[in-house]
Amino acid sequence: MTSTPSTVDTERRRPVLLISVGAVLVAAMLAWLLWPSGDGGAQVQRSTQGPYTVELSVTDPHQGGNAFALTVTGAAPDVVTVEPVMPQMGHALAPSPAIAEAPGRYRTGDVLLPMAGQWEITVSLRGPSGAAQHVFPLLVK
After folding, report:
1. Contact residues for 22 (Cβ-Cβ < 8 A; gap 6+)
2. Considering only CA atoms, which of 84, 80, 94, 21 is closest in space to residue 52?
3. 121 vs 140: CA distance, rounded Å
4. Distance separating alpha carbons of residues 108 and 84, to the nearest angstrom
5. What does the pLDDT look like over 1-27, one tens digit per residue?
6. How many helices (H) and strands (E) does the chain have?
7. Is 82 helix (H, G, I), strand (E, B) or coil?
8. How far is CA 37 from CA 48, 63, 69, in A?
9. Which of 111, 125, 131, 138 is in the most buried spot, having the most CB atoms within 10 Å?
10. In the chain, what is the straight-line distance between the N-terminal and C-terminal CA atoms, in Å?
């Protein structure tokens, strides 16, 4: 049986086509697995104590400086602080003030978390309606 020129060309191209399709599939799988998540690792938690409901948000908690965003509903506090504590290691850091950005919205500057592990972030609020503390668990990587 003799091969026509078009059959020979098709037979030569088939392995190249299969390898190309396989390479594209492998590249797509790697991109999907390695692509960063869309939420940037944001952690959001909510707590209600006394006259305040607090929502704490931190993006990608990591060793080093971290900014905390707070949303407070209920009574308007005069003072808001954030205090990191790592009970397992006996670390307690000085409270950091949270600055008002808008009514009910506060943000800290960089709060230094010196090591990875399980932390507790205590948000303290004080105002005309009273004082309250909200404790949020936070895993730092």
Report:
1. none
2. 80
3. 11
4. 12
5. 555 656 656 677 777 777 876 666 666
6. 1, 12
7. strand
8. 29, 19, 20
9. 125
10. 67
Residue type, 79: V
**At 45, which amino acid appears?**
Q
Q: Which two tokens stand for residue 102?
A: 């808008």
For residue 94, give both structure tokens. 């000085």
Residue with tokens 């005309």: 128
115's tokens: 């090591």
**Measuring CA to CA, which residue among 64, 65, 16, 47 is closest to residue 134?**
47
CB 112 within 8 A of CB 121: no
Burial pattern 64-102, b for ≥16 Cβ within 10 A else e, equals: eebebbbebebbebeebbbbbebeeeeeeeebbebeeee
**72, two tokens:** 């407070």
> What is the residue whose two structure tokens read 């190249």?
16
Asked whether the predicted pLDDT for residue 40 surpasses 70, the reply is no
Quick one: tokens of 15?
Answer: 């392995």
Sequence-distant (6+) residues with CB within 8 A of 42 are 57, 58, 59, 60
Instruction: Specify whether the CB–CB gap between 113 and 64 falls below 8 A.
Output: yes
